[in-house]
Amino acid sequence: MTTASSGRPQPRPGILDIEAYVPGKSSAKGSKIHKLSSNESPIGASPKAIDAYRASATTLERYPDGSATALRTAIAQRYGLSPDRIVCGAGSDELLQLLASAYLGEGDEAVYSQYGFLVYPIVISANGAKAIVAPERNQRTDVDALIASVTTKTRIVFLANPNNPTGTYIPFSEVKRLHAALPPDVLLVLDAAYAEFVRTNDYESGIALVSEHENVVMTRTFSKIYGLAALRLGWLYGPAHVVDVLNRVRGPFNVSSGAIAAGVAAMEDQAFVERALDHNAAWLPWLAAEIAKLGVTVTPSVGNFLLLNFIKDKTAHQADAFLQERGIIARRMDAYGLPNALRLTVGDEEANQAVVVALKDFMS
Predict the structure, then answer these.
(1) Got the DSSP string for 56-97?
(2) Helix (H) or strand (E) segment spanning residue 338
(3) Within 13 A of 158's CA, how many CA atoms are on the CB side?
(4) What is the tens place of the pLDDT at every residue in 57-68?
């Protein structure tokens, strides 16, 4: 218990043990910078979304619609959902935090996979619960390990599918097997931030599972395929009772008018989404193949990024420094327990060509 003699307000026990989330770098040497550290869209945002965002500036004196009705309606129409079961937030990060704050507390546990998104342990610990890490197998989620980590104290299981930073995924049959093994009072959170990029027949983002069960939610983001990272916009699809809880605890105007307008326009511009998908489908395998030729182990990815694993005499730290000298910014993976790996976003043609040339020079 904090006492008056401490001299200043003190945070709740455990808060100062949390490692703050560190985003990807934005600067490096050189006149031409290729930022490939944050999995941002290399083709930007839909021109229609940009126009909608600009138009929203004419009413900056007005509060946004606190229910984000237009955006929820656009999402619902796109995916054939009920808008009443959708919650919008300031990025999927906020929705993950809201879920943790609503369903976790002192004495509770939440489970996530070994190389899962770093926001999970942050939101778990920030709400007084204990983070339980399930080991992965070959940088891939191990469903049996997740199931074995569940105890009577477990309240949430977080599953990023596809996973960031590895880019790997598990098929829908495995997601269903995981869910079937969970007690009905454990919430399965399917983080599908990269779902749009997956082009395999055995994958499903989680919509069907949410529709059929009371203890599953799915989160999505506009930051990746839609190129709206600067607006901080995400959405969640869940059971009515979970949606009711989140609407009680979220901020009354947690999504700005500009984000709502741009999100609606982006959701409706599926031709632009197809452009982004085609770009990634062409360059992801090209990058993976070209980099693998250089002696770097590339983890198979279905996202818009690659995890590069370096051998001992050519370390990831050395590679990162070399790339920065060439104006190329990748993402160090030390915080994920992968000190000899870099995460690399699929960029535009110039960036992709440049990184292969730079890595060839480094490895030689």
Answers:
(1) GGGGTTSPP-TT-HHHHHHHHHHHT--GGGEEEESHHHHHHH
(2) none
(3) 34
(4) 999 999 999 999
Supply φ then ψ for residue 25, to 5 degrees.
Answer: -60, 155
Q: What is the largest CA-CA distance in the chain?
A: 63
User: Which SS3 state, helix, strand or coil, does residue 188 take?
Assistant: strand
Q: Where are the domains positioned within the chain? A: 12-45+271-363, 47-268
CATH number of 47-268: 3.40.640.10
Domain 12-45+271-363 sits in CATH at 3.90.1150.10
27 class by beta-carbon count within 10 Å (0-12 exposed, 13-18 middle, 19+ buried): exposed
**CA–CA gap between residue 338 and residue 319 (Å, rounded):** 14
φ, ψ of residue 89 to 5 degrees: the values are -145, 175
Condensed to tens digits (0 to 9), the pLDDT of residues 130-158 reads 999 999 999 999 999 999 999 999 999 99
Q: Measuring CA to CA, how many Å separate 332 from each of 37, 337, 342?
A: 8, 10, 5
| Model-wide pTM > 0.90 | yes
Fold match between domain 12-45+271-363 and domain 47-268: no
Phi, psi of 70 (to 5 degrees): -65, -40
pLDDT beyond 80 at 119: yes
Give the DSSP H or E segment for 284: helix 270-292
- 164 within 8 A of 118, measured Cβ to Cβ: no
Q: Which amino acid is at 156?
A: I
* CB burial of residue 268 (10 Å; 0-12, 13-18, 19+): middle
Token representation of residue 85: 């079961």
187-191 and 154-160 strand pairing: parallel
Encoded tokens for 133 = 């890490």
